[in-house]
Amino acid sequence: MIDSATVAAILASVLDGKPLEPEAATVLLKARDRSLRQQIQAAANQLRSRQVGDRVSYVINRNLNFTNICEQHCNFCAFRRDADQDGAFWLDASILLEKGAAAVAAGATEFCLQGGLNPAAKRNGRSLDFYVELTASLKQAFPQIHLHAFSPQEIQFIAREDGLSFREVLMALRSAGVGSLPGTAAEVLDDSVRRILCPEKLDSATWKTIIQTAHQVGLPTTSTLLSGHLETPSQQAQHLEQLRQLQQAAIAGETPARITEFILLPFVGELAPAPLRKRVKRDQPDLSDALLVMAVARLYLGDWIANHQPSWVKLGLAGATQALDWGCNDLGGTLMEEHITSMTGAQGGTAQTVEQLEAAIAAAGRQPYQRDTLYRPVAVEAVHAG
Predict the structure, then answer these.
(1) Is 330 helix (H, G, I), strand (E, B) or coil?
(2) Which of 139, 34, 104 is nearest to 384 (CA)?
């Protein structure tokens, strides 16, 4: 039984500047009583205000999911298709450039590129050449745009296909125009869970190695946690510990590139593959549980990873806005289109306008501002002037 005094002592220690440890974080993540959760919320909100202030950021960006053809069969994914399956798509460069032009006209500063793992995606017998050509074509057409591209899973796939090191792949992509990496494919950094959730995916150690290597070659990354499926509070806490260690290593090594943000990705199971649906009997995320994890993440990571973002795609804009009172200081991006989560049955939508994001932030009593991928404020007049 978790009592109020225990929770209060843990929170007082964190607010006094002492790092939250996995065992104490697990206690907080097990809190079910409403009053205990309100204590945790208040502490996370206080720490958020102290660390990043009361303004809330957003980014004007566009997702470019160039293919859903994938060799892997993750048990939570409703996005992937075989090449000959109904609904499979592979967008050629002209379509991506057209989508990119529309995004730039809407004021975008970022394109986010991720796709399935297709062994047929090769140029001159090398997978890397396809990814380099894709990146370079977008960067040449839109040199002002930041390319936030290719998860650690995609890096591992390219390296495996071509017999290259992670560093070689990352250096080539950076030279072609990639500016940062999404910290997706992390799911939960516990291999006992990963063997059920995504058995064909890279393991936890490989994910961390690729993130570290990206930082070393000058590519910032984000970080994520997929929550609300098979994982336990202890595994959630250990995941946060591993993210903190990655950031601490980057800081200690004076690595110029680091983790820019933490994003919680609550599990959406409505259209997930049947094997996992039988084990996780939840169609939509539990907002209360997601808010608790976000609050604990702020308490755990805030001194090292200052920016925390909810997923309006998974929680809906109203749910994501509530997260601004649970430790979050960013409302994400406009996206303009979204396929990976929406195909699982998420009800949050696939796009938001600047006006919608700013109105939601203002309704929460906070001041909105536009940022770029690396959390630098954007001069709006300069963007719209082209």
Answers:
(1) strand
(2) 104
